[in-house]
Amino acid sequence: MNTPLRLGIAGLGTVGVGVVKIVRQHAALLGARTGREIIISAVSARSRDKDRGVNLSGYAWEDDPVALATRDDVDVYIELMGGTDGPAKASVEAAIAAGKDVVTANKAMLAIHGQALAEAAEAAEVSLRYEAAVAGGIPVIKALTEGLAGNQVTRIVGVMNGSCNYILTRMESAGLPYADVFAEADGLGYLEADPQLDVGGIDAAHKLAILSAIAFGTRVDFDGIELEGIERVSIDDIRQADDMGYKIKLLGVAQKTGRGLEQRMMPCLVPATSPMGQLQGGTNMVAIEGDAVEQVVLRGPGAGEGPTASAVMGDVCDIARGLRLPVFGQPATGLEAATRTTSLLPAPYYLRTSLVDKPGALAKIATVLGEAGVSIDRMRQYGHDDTTAPVLIVTHKCTRAALDTALAAMDGTGVLASEPVVLRIESV
Ligand code: NAP
Ligand code: HSE
């Protein structure tokens, strides 16, 4: 067997402990598969005394992740602390500068600093790998950069945040409002330390930005994503959507249009019978569409100790085998900034509002939609109180711009009793 591959792991939380366990439990398997013994030289975390449920006594301890990243007995620096900047970025930069290969699960850092880090890693001729950063245990980075490398990718669509999918499916199954399920998920520890990263769609958008860069050969462009979280999704919308044969998902879509790259992360309606519509709990799903392959759908656990550590170890094994690929599938210095477009592609839309319950109110809404060129596919009034009438409209395919024109005109009709809820209906 060749010389051992020596790991330095910074971050001994959920993912870091999972990695330590796999290295210990599967030592023989990893050696057989890679031709190299994979060992841990040193570890780092904030608290040295915390019981982490694994035996760390055989590993050197560093308080400072930068010191860990640059140790002589570390070949691969594994960053599992998290955070866009701070010690995560500093230590990854130090590792690259010291000629170490790097593995990270840190989507926030890559979505913001991915281009600079990729250029640095490629200039230093080291690997920077991040399978665990997107969709947890699903090997979607490997699928895009390797298995599907012969395709011009046309669209990526996916559910990439398990916590949001848990909240939406739990709201539906328990008939509970958003606020109750949010509190429940938070109590169960399902949400990030800053829950806004999950429910605001930011975490999922970080992942989409990374996938887009690989798929479309553009620089990571997190700021180019049209972003909306799930906070405004109501139990009423979930029920109405269900009644019409749809489920509401926090859906990421990246698609090349004639005018540029469209990236969206927002709650959408998808057919209830589709694989995406049937996705329950914390599971993730990513569909990749390519000109040759047509469509590949990957489904699996989007988070958790075992699944995320599994993805980290896939990267470690590739490094042990000597596989070195450009960080985003092609040399980083050649990546261009994407030309951005927003919701140019037409789609049907779901529109729910309440109208003042008086003669002609519905006609006014239908008129402003028609004047904006938005055609109604289905419409229904579904029960009302003394003064207002809830109305649900599904449009034929239209552009978001046309719909926005209609919404602005609706505002001036004097018949709206509540702010309209608008959700795109996506084909998946
Ligand atoms: P976590 O459980 O919060 O663990 C973070 C670890 O980093 C802790 O061990 C902490 O030390 C250590 N740490 C924080 N700041 C440090 C510092 N300045 N110096 C040294 N150590 C420091 O986080 P996690 O869930 O394992 O996530 C780690 C990374 O994986 C993040 O980038 C996350 O986004 C990503 N990820 C996580 C999952 C998941 O399912 N959890 C899935 C995909 C990707 P102490 O333990 O001493 O506090
Ligand atoms: N908060 C993330 C999620 C963790 O729920 O998907 C995995 O990235």
For CATH, the homologous superfamily of the largest domain is named as Dihydrodipicolinate Reductase, domain 2
Tally the helices.
14
Specify the CATH class of the largest domain: Alpha Beta
By secondary-structure content and strand pairing, the structural class works out as alpha/beta
| Alpha-carbon Rg, integer | 24 Å
| Biggest sheet statistics | 11 strands, mixed
List the ligand species: NADP nicotinamide-adenine-dinucleotide phosphate, L-homoserine
Low-confidence stretches: none
- Give a count of the beta strands, DSSP E runs of length 2 or more: 17
Mean of residue pLDDT values: 96
| Global shape | elongated
Tell me what the structure shows:
The chain has 428 residues and is an alpha/beta fold. The chain has 3 domains: 2-133, Rossmann fold (3-Layer(aba) Sandwich), CATH 3.40.50.720; 140-302, Dihydrodipicolinate Reductase, domain 2 (2-Layer Sandwich); 349-425, Alpha-Beta Plaits, CATH 3.30.70. Helices cover 36% and strands 25% of the residues. The chain has helices at residues 14-25, 27-34, 65-69, 86-97, 107-123, 140-147, 162-174, 178-187, 196-199, 202-216, 235-243, 305-321, 361-371, 400-411, and strands at 2-10, 36-44, 60-61, 76-79, 101-104, 128-129, 153-159, 226-227, 246-257, 260-271, 283-290, 294-301, 340-341, 349-356, 376-381, 388-395, 421-425. Strands 7, 8, 9, 10, 11, 12, 13, 14, 15, 16 and 17 form an 11-stranded mixed β-sheet that branches. Strand 5 (101-104), helix 5 and strand 6 form a beta-alpha-beta unit. Helix 4 runs parallel beside helix 5, helix 7 packs across helix 8 and helix 13 packs antiparallel against helix 14. The longest helix is centred in the first third of the chain and has 17 residues, at 107-123. The chain is elongated, with a radius of gyration of 24 Å. The two termini are 47 Å apart. L-homoserine binds at residues 136, 161-163, 192, 198, 203, 302-303.
